[in-house]
Design brief:
Blueprint lengths: L42 H6 L2 H11 L12 H5 L7 E2 L2 H10 L6 H18 L8 H30 L8 E6 L4 H10 L7 E6 L5 H11 L20 H7 L22 E3 L8 E7 L11 H11 L2 E12 L2 H15 L13 E2 L20 H26 L1 H11 L24 H5 L5 E6 L31 E6 L2 H6 L3 H4 L15 H6 L11 E13 L4 H12 L15 E2 L4 E3 L2 E7 L5 E7 L4 H9 L12 E4 L5 H13 L1 H10 L10 H5 L1 H13 L2 H10 L12
Parallel strand pairs: 1-9, 2-3, 2-5, 3-4, 5-6
Antiparallel strand pairs: 6-10, 7-8, 8-10, 9-10, 11-13, 12-13, 13-14, 14-15
Length: 720
């Protein structure tokens, strides 16, 4: 008989054994039937790789992993980021192509997309679309990459929290697009995920057109549809409309607009941010800054507004484009939330107090031994004035007792339930003799950064203002913290990027972004219009994931103890303290150089040579940008930061740059420019009135009217 053959791996029992030749009459081993060939497997292999053991392993670990993962250190696999090529779901890509993109004339749509790319290349921020054409161009230009970026960040949040622990029930999405982050979250959570509340705030005063498109895209996801016994948000839809749906043709073959009034989804599309609600997960996508010259005021105001809505144990996800403006927006939001300048020597990721969002504010009480200052005298005068006011109010109160008796006779006495505060169950009650320090100094709002930062110190790459990146002719190196993401192009992007306007290379020097094309290049555009085009495209993003700690008394006390008794010793077993690779590793002979952001808050260049160890060297050569690196280094070089003196020189250089200075002054000009829209221009009388008002308000018209010496003042002439 055959000799027993030992297998090389215990986990590859279903591998076909090629050492034995089988005749045509003998059955061959298959993946489903191995009982006829048990004699070829050793007994210990059969026991360890049984179906029960494999099922137990899958339930415990989740996945047996790829065969190539067995060569990596387990910590390297834990710190690995998502580098797969993202694909937009086919139903969403089809509805964008058939029911959104095809609603616009291709030439006008491409022209509008070129304008959007030009504005984005100049200002580095997105703008709120208003008309239908602008919304279609915005979706055709930005939706694909925005979806891939949101999916990458949300997958990292799920990985850090744990797939079993990541199940948000109250979600809010904020952005200019068609609820892009909500679409990505629905795909990650699966078709059976039904949370308590899903809301999306589409930024913009005139957001009706984008809300329609968001409804169309979201309706293609199974977890957005209602069951048979449920009612959607449009519960008043007539029964006649639902009866006609069965008689229509298959929706996948339909080209044209969709009546969104007959579409019901679980996500509620909002016009404004709520005030009283709180959410477990808030996703903010490229909407913290609308005008670059309003930095950082707009970022501060929006962050304070959003953090009021974050529930305890909730997560805030901020996603921006990976350009200088996007990075500075994220860095400013991070600085505002954790205040690294207030804890310069603190190591680790102890949650930081967020004073503005806390119910209790820490008070600086004066000591009795302090000298009497001018401020104390002014404070005493205010207190005396307040005392006089209270005496007057007491007299008025005595006079109002008779009025109170009349009210009691008319409406009855006040019950204890009517005297309760609103949401009194959520309030913490203190005794009358409680010291004021325990009442006012109790901060119940703490934040900590989950990713991408491995520390809570000052960002080593933050400059504080996007203007520094515009300065030319200087020798300083200005890097940003951004990460790349590759996404596969669906058919609608390939179709729309054919032709002259979007298939050629971007020319920054030309006004239209295209410039003049040679005969050879124009000839190559004939036919397909995408010569040597790829089926993928890549984008870069800057992001931040923040978690709010629990605000119960036990959690707050634990945070205070960590801060009071911390020995500043990092726990290297915790993935949140592992360095993150910022740039693409440089592979040289028998050495790998990687630029990492360390837990000490520095940008360092680490060397991982072959002499450090076979495992570390192997994993370093396979590492990529955005991964966490847990296996250490042999040597390192700390990169210097820009000093305050260097920033002063850059400020002076920025002001002396005449072109940049004039452009910024034009943007900051307070005078509002009034234009005429296409709809108003179609109305001849209204368009004439608008142009006449604009002409009469000009200084040139007024100056020439004074020189003409008219009998009637033109500014007061009403036409009669």
């Amino acid at each position: 008989m055959f000799k027993q053959l030992p297998l090389r791996s215990n986990h590859l029992t279903r591998r076909c054994i090629t050492n034995v030749r089988y005749s045509s009459s003998t059955t061959t081993p298959s993946d489903q039937n191995l009982k006829h060939f048990d004699f070829m497997i050793e007994e210990n292999v059969k026991d360890e790789a049984s179906d029960a053991n494999i099922q137990r392993f899958q339930e415990k670990e989740g996945d047996m992993g790829k065969p190539s993962d067995s060569k990596f250190d387990p910590r390297t696999i834990i710190g690995r980021a998502d580098h797969s090529i993202t694909e937009l779901p086919k139903p969403i890509a089809k509805v964008i192509k058939n029911n959104i993109i095809r609603l616009s004339i291709p030439n006008r749509l491409r022209s509008r997309m070129v304008t959007l790319f030009q504005d984005f290349n100049t200002n580095m921020i997105q703008q709120a679309p208003s008309t239908g054409l602008e919304c279609n161009a915005h979706i055709a230009s930005f939706f694909l990459q925005d979806y891939a970026m949101a999916r990458r960040v949300l997958l990292e949040l799920q990985h850090r929290v744990g797939p079993n622990n990541f199940n948000p029930q109250r979600i809010l999405d904020v952005g200019y697009g068609p609820a892009t982050s909500m679409v990505a979250l629905n795909e990650i959570m699966g078709p059976k995920w039904v949370p308590e509340m899903k809301e999306a705030y589409i930024v913009g005063r005139r957001n009706n057109e984008m809300k329609k498109r968001a409804k169309v895209i979201l309706s293609r996801q199974l977890n957005e549809n209602f069951g048979k016994d449920e009612e959607g948000e449009q519960s008043t839809t007539k029964k006649e409309n639902s009866s006609k749906e069965g008689a229509e043709a298959d929706e996948t073959d339909y080209f044209g607009p969709i009546d969104v009034k007959r579409v019901n989804i679980r996500t509620k599309l909002r016009d404004t941010l709520p005030v009283t609600k709180q959410y477990d997960l808030i996703m903010v996508h490229s909407s913290l800054l609308s005008r670059q010259f309003s930095f950082p005021k707009d970022v501060d105001d929006n962050i304070h507004m959003i953090l009021k809505l974050l529930a305890p144990n909730g997560h805030l996800v901020i996603i921006e484009r990976g350009n200088p403006v996007g990075f500075e927006i994220v860095a400013r939001a991070r600085q505002l939330m954790i205040r690294p300048e207030a804890y310069p020597q603190e190591s680790g990721k102890i949650p930081r107090p967020y004073i503005k969002g806390s119910a209790g504010k820490p008070q600086r009480l004066k000591k009795e031994s302090a000298f009497v200052t001018k401020e104390d005298l002014e404070f005493e005068e205010k207190m005396l004035a307040q005392l006089d006011l209270e005496e007057e109010l007491e007299k008025a109160r005595e006079m109002g007792e008779e009025f109170e008796k009349e009210l009691i006779e008319k409406y009855g006495t006040v019950t204890p339930e009517e005297l309760k505060f609103e949401n009194e169950e959520d309030m913490e009650v203190f005794e009358v003799d409680t010291p004021p320090e325990q009442i006012f100094d109790k901060v119940d709002f703490h934040l900590s950064v989950i990713a991408p930062c491995p520390h809570h110190r000052k960002c080593p790459l933050q400059l504080g203002d996007p203007k520094y990146y515009k300065i030319s002719n200087h020798k300083h190196r200005m890097d940003i913290c951004s990460f790349g993401k590759v996404v596969r192009r669906p058919q609608y992007t390939m179709d729309i990027k054919r032709g002259k306007k979007l298939a050629v290379k971007w020319d920054k020097t030309a006004e239209d972004g295209i410039g003049t094309l040679g005969k050879k290049e124009l000839k190559s555009l004939e036919g397909r219009g995408r010569p040597h085009g790829n089926d993928t495209e890549s984008g870069s993003l800057s992001y931040l994931i923040v978690q709010r700690s629990a605000n119960d008394e036990k959690s707050i006390k634990h945070i205070e103890e960590l801060r009071s008794y911390s020995d500043n010793v990092l726990n290297n077993d915790n993935p949140t303290n592992w360095p993150r690779i910022i740039n693409v590793p440089n592979k040289v002979k028998k050495n790998v150089q990687m630029e990492v952001c360390t837990p000490e808050g520095n940008m360092e260049i680490w060397s991982v040579p072959k002499s450090l160890g076979k495992q570390a060297y192997h994993d370093a050569r396979k590492s990529k940008q955005g991964d966490l690196w847990p296996l250490g280094k042999k040597s390192s070089v700390v990169r210097n930061r820009l000093s305050d003196e260097t920033k002063e020189k850059l400020d002076y250089l920025y002001l002396t740059n005449k072109k940049t200075f004039k452009k910024e002054q034009k943007k900051k000009h307070w005078k509002k420019k009034v234009g005429t829209s296409v709809d108003d221009f179609n109305d001849g009388f209204l368009a004439t009135e608008l142009m006449a008002d604009k002409l009469e308000s000009s200084s040139k018209y007024k100056r020439q009217a004074k020189k003409a010496n008219f009998d009637v003042d033109p500014s007061k002439f009403d036409g009669n």
